[in-house]
Design a protein that fits this description.
By secondary structure, this protein is of the alpha/beta class. The protein folds into two domains: about 1-140, 3-Layer(aba) Sandwich (Rossmann fold); about 145-355, 3-Layer(aba) Sandwich (L-fuculose-1-phosphate Aldolase). Helix content is about 25%, strand content about 20%. It has helices at about 10-25, 75-85, 130-140, 160-175, 190-200, 275-285, 315-325, 350-355; strands at about 1-5, 30, 40-45, 60-70, 90-95, 110-115, 120-125, 145-150, 210-215, 225-230, 245-250, 255-260, 290-295, 335, 340-345. Strand 11 (about 245-250) and strand 12 (about 255-260) form a beta hairpin. Helix 1 (about 10-25) crosses helix 3 (about 130-140). The radius of gyration is 21 Å and the shape is globular.
């Protein structure tokens, strides 16, 4: 993979750490290049006070932002997440240089904290090889979050359906369970230009956690149609077909696009959840699955994926589907997504919620 290093200032401790990370990537055969020379990722060196934003030209370019802190502030997690949003990064790495909790393998002697858009937050003693092992797979991942909308939704579904009503009901229940934060208020931390960039690249108008989907048979549109909540909305307030909930009739894996059927009065900017690729793969691979819930919460004893691939990547979708396939009953189980949350399957939403009520832990288990 080709990559570039971007920085607008000098910060000795941060730059030493960056040099060690760059050396490790070069040792593994990656190529340091200019930002306009077909790169796959950027190492963005900046600070938390006025973070520099590298404007990627393509969705396929991943941004890893490196910042430093001499001591951890009172809420390092919130600072890192805000920095992640302000820099439009895939991962923020914050090296805390004055709070070394254990012996590291490098002379820089610090702990490094990782933050992801899925609210992953974990740390380890700084070791360039360990950093490489955590971010290289992400840099090589492939997003599959496009939508191909067609106004071919049969008129009997324009207003609602039995399954749509269930999604509304159980979205409200997720909200009551306290595992469904409202969308992140982008306009509080980003300029209008940056928000336009997000929509151009990812067709997102907000950041929100969790989603629900459930099959509903629509013979005119194929054999694996399912409803799913839309991207960036508050799932506790689902109301309108074609805006808050969308019908997926298939997936074009080569193009990375969900095939979405909408009514004539649909919201032109509405897009199905970025996890549509994961849900479609599960429905196709396991025909007995009738509903799927994804929450940023945890259940004790669940098997877990080994890599925290970003939401909306084909790699995450395959990891989750493969993990489900190794469970005793893929059609009625829960699996963990590393430093992320849960994917829960069932014959229908009613069954899923009967199984998880009173068992969900609102804090996701984090692992380095």
């Amino acid at each position: 993979m080709k990559f570039a290093v971007i920085k607008t200032d000098l910060e000795p401790a941060r730059d030493r750490i960056a040099e060690a990370i760059v050396r490790k990537f070069l040792e593994h055969g990656h190529e340091l290049s200019a930002p306009d020379n077909g790169i796959q990722f950027v190492l963005n060196l900046t600070g938390t006070d006025h973070p520099n934003l590298f404007r990627r030209r393509a969705q396929s370019i991943f941004i890893f932002t490196l910042v430093t802190a001499e001591r951890p502030p009172q809420d390092l997690r919130a600072l890192c997440y805000t920095t992640l949003v302000r820099t439009l990064s895939n991962v923020v790495m914050c090296a805390v240089t004055g709070n070394r909790s254990s012996t590291g393998a490098d002379e820089t002697g610090c702990d490094i904290y990782f933050t992801t858009p899925e609210a992953g937050f974990y740390h380890l003693p700084f070791d360039p090889e360990e950093v490489y092992q955590r971010i290289a797979p992400i840099a090589g991942a492939h997003f599959a979050i496009g939508n191909r909308l067609a106004t071919d939704l049969p008129s009997r579904f324009w207003e609602t359906s039995p399954v749509v009503e269930q999604i509304k009901e159980y979205g409200r229940e997720l909200d009551k369970l306290g595992v469904l934060p409202a969308p992140f208020p982008l306009r509080e931390v980003l300029s209008e230009e940056s928000i336009r960039d997000i929509y151009r690249l990812f067709e997102m108008r907000g950041l929100s956690y969790g989603n629900l989907s459930a099959r509903e048979r629509v013979p005119e549109l194929g054999g694996t149609t399912f409803w799913m909540t839309a991207r960036g909305i508050d799932k506790g307030h689902v109301t309108k077909v074609g805006r808050d909930v969308l019908l997926v009739r298939g997936f074009d894996y080569e193009a990375g696009q969900a095939l979405v059927s909408v009514p004539p009065d649909h919201d032109e900017k509405a897009r199905v959840s970025v996890d549509a690729v994961e849900h479609e793969l599960i429905y196709r691979r396991f025909p007995e699955v009738g509903a799927i819930v994804h929450v940023h919460a945890w259940l004790d004893g669940v098997p877990c994926t080994g890599q925290n691939y970003p939401c909306g990547t084909i790699e995450l979708a395959r990891d989750v589907a493969d993990l489900l396939g190794r469970t005793e009953n893929p059609a009625r189980t829960a699996v963990g997504l590393k430093n992320h949350g849960l994917t829960i399957t069932g014959p229908n939403l009613t069954d899923i919620f009967a199984r998880i009520r009173g068992r969900l832990r609102t804090e996701v288990r984090m692992a380095a």
